[in-house]
Amino acid sequence: MYLSANELARRDQRGLQLQSLPLRVQWSLDDLRAADGHSLRCRYSCGVRAVDDPAEKQMLQEVLMGSRLNVTTDDVMRYMQATLREAAVATAKDKGVEAWLADDKELLATTLRRAGERAAFAAGIELIAPFQLDLESGSFEQKRLNDLQRTLAEQEAAGRVEHFNRAADLLKRFEEIRAKTPDLSPSAILGQLSPIDQGSTLQTLLLASAKQAGPQSLWAVSGEYLVKVDARAGGAATTELFPLPPTLGPLRSVQSTRIDGQRRLLVGARDGFFLFDPENPANPDVYSDGGVQSAMGFSRVLYHSHERGFAGCHGEAGLVRWSPGSTKPTSVIRPQRFGVPPPGASAVGGPPPLPNTSIAVPTRQAGPRNLEAIDDRRLLMSVGGRLWIVDGDEANEIASASSSEVVAIVPDGRTFHVVHEDGAIAAFDGPTRQIVGTRHRPMRVRAAGSLPWLGSRRLLLAGDEGAVQCIGGDDPLVTEYVSSHRALRSIAGSADLVAAVSSDRQRLIVWQTWEGRSPLAEIYITAKTKHRVADVDFG
């Protein structure tokens, strides 16, 4: 007989059956009081296992099982809850909250372990390492947030002369709060400030982060050209054109990556991609896929790992992989595997094909798009409004939050923000590979990207009307990047700049991250390349 995942023991006709492996149990001990009166919340966890000994089995049945047929982790949690809480309440009063939060938890950890072992001994079970203790204090963090708000008010009153110094100081204080509350995202901390202070705090922190992180290069692809744009230079923005070999056809996408610590660009084209070294622009590596005749191109290419190599998604070629140094594909999953009709099956009555000097950039293409790496094995991508997880040659569809087309998948730590055209934004949890939350913006989303911010990401959403919206995952603040353009087609952010492609794909619109009231620059790329802009990225 097999025991379920949460069962320590089960009684059947053969006697008492025990789980061979330890199971994890967690206790939440709330409303503890430190010596200075601040509240503490304790989360304590360890492994638990039933002892395989006749006398211990008898104790297990008498203390935990009774007349029931099994013992679960919930039973153990309830049995030991009062004992652990009593020990925690008595020990928490020995120190102030700052001492407890400053990794000085050994006394409490030892007390809880000893109390737990005594209770476990009396019930025929044993506690197994690792033992984990986490502490947090809502009242103490509220005090820190109040201090932060007072600091902000003092800085605003001091005048603009010391603006950059204030920004750096606020960033430092904000980082200190994050260090004390690692479970809270920057967005969650921002959301706990008063609404009147959220906007100015975000603006100041963006300014400080930009100065601290330094600039990244802005890249675009247009026709056969990879274009480097300098929008930070005094006066008019400057461009530098890098013509790539015509062997793979027109360029479709550009993504920045690091391979063995070196900065590289992955430039998707119609028939493959280029691995471009900005320090050696004359000799890009060529990775081709000639298996499909198409006017489209690889909309996203990523470096998965040294073992898994490169992966790219193409509306009509599907999901293609290459090993580093091998210019031909090592594996291919064509779109039909994801329920997409073969190329040309629905082309009757459609528009004529574009000339060979252009790349097809459809508003929405029902083929593989928005490729991202979940971990060193699995990939996440969209096909229409559906989500797929690919592990090697195995592809599985998972539930999505909306049937509307997926516009973008934005990685943010363990979370991937899945942005749908109808404004639905789903939070996909990488480790569990499930949708864990959904929210909705009242807009039709044309393009989506992200703004890096204090180790997290804020979403950039471009709709049919109005400005580009910038939103966080855990705060209600919505900021805007305003221009005369609507229905932007591609958007990306860096520490100091936001860039988007105009609806006619001829111009780049660039803003400073902390100043969204008007663009920093508008660059007419088509005048230089004689082609439309297909994509933009920083790196």
Walk me through the structure.
The structure is a single chain. This protein has nine helices and 34 strands. The chain has 539 residues and is α+β, with helices and mostly antiparallel strands. It folds into three domains: 130 residues, Band 7 domain (Tetrahydropterin Synthase, Chain A, 2-Layer Sandwich), CATH 3.30.479; 74 residues, no CATH class; 314 residues, Methylamine Dehydrogenase, Chain H, CATH 2.130.10.10. The strands form nine sheets. Strands 9-8-7-34 form a four-stranded antiparallel beta sheet. Strands 10-11-12-13 form a four-stranded antiparallel beta sheet, with no helix packed on it. The protein is globular, with a radius of gyration of 28 Å.
Relevant terms:
4-stranded antiparallel beta sheet, single chain, Methylamine Dehydrogenase, Chain H, Tetrahydropterin Synthase, Chain A, 3 domains, 39% strand, alpha+beta, 34 strands
